[in-house]
Amino acid sequence: HMKTWNVIIGCILAIVSLVVSRIGAELAAGLVFMLGAPMFLCNILAGILYIFFAYLLVKLLSNKFIRTSMKEVSIPRVSIKGRWIVVAICFPLIVTGIYLILPGTFVSSGMDRENILNTVSAGVVFNSLAAGIVEEMVFRGIIRNLLAKRWNTAISIVLPSVLFAAVHLIGQSFNPVSSILVLIGGTLVGCMFSVIAIDSDSIWNSAIVHVLWNAVILGFGFYIGGSANNDAIMSYVLETKSLLLTGGQFGVETAVIAIVGYCVVAFLAILWRKKQKV
Length: 278
Hints:
Blueprint: H1 4-34, H2 39-66, H3 82-101, E1 104-108, H4 113-150, H5 153-167, H6 176-200, H7 203-219, E2 222-225, E3 234-238, H8 243-246, H9 256-277
Parallel strand pairs: 2-3
Antiparallel strand pairs: 1-3
Helix pairs in contact: 1-2, 1-4, 2-4, 3-7, 3-9, 4-5, 4-6, 4-7, 5-6, 6-7, 6-9
């Protein structure tokens, strides 16, 4: 068992690794942009560097502070189970499909070709691929395993998920209701990612689900919510004003349809894990 203070420091260092990696990647890409490179290439570069920097820092943290291998913190060589690829593809498409059945209106932001390219490159490479992988390494890799070593599986699932949800409130100006929805939805999706990672002792399965969820829900520039999003290429504005369906200011990721989906996928992960043990 690790000492409590060591676990706390390790969790803080993991978050710092994420922040430093992101800032470093954005600064490097910004420098390349100043040298004349097109924005979409800089977005792609930022995403690649974000993953690269985070992997190096997480590996350093694992080897030198926790004194264990990357495999022991659920970050082995990349290997993804076929069933999680299927879930990763189907889950966000089903949620999106359900919303498109509901009454609503398509609203275009009127972006030109250059802005569309910039939006998609940032959304897919940085906010989906890179963010999904890095957040899984940090929250479901380092932090979850640190807590599991000190306490138990339940705490290692719930606490990182609450922290994961809280991080999504930083820098936002959500009203109290939307903030509560973010905390609930973020915690539940975090728990879902955790049990997926536990299913095969690897963050790569939760990462593929995380990456494709981000990509389909917003990464490609398509937004669903109670009002149009000017940062999206196309919005589907729901006629309903129910916060349970729109998810408030954060969007449908914190709405009841997505939350039910998180619970269903988490249940499947637990079921498959139990079958493996039999």
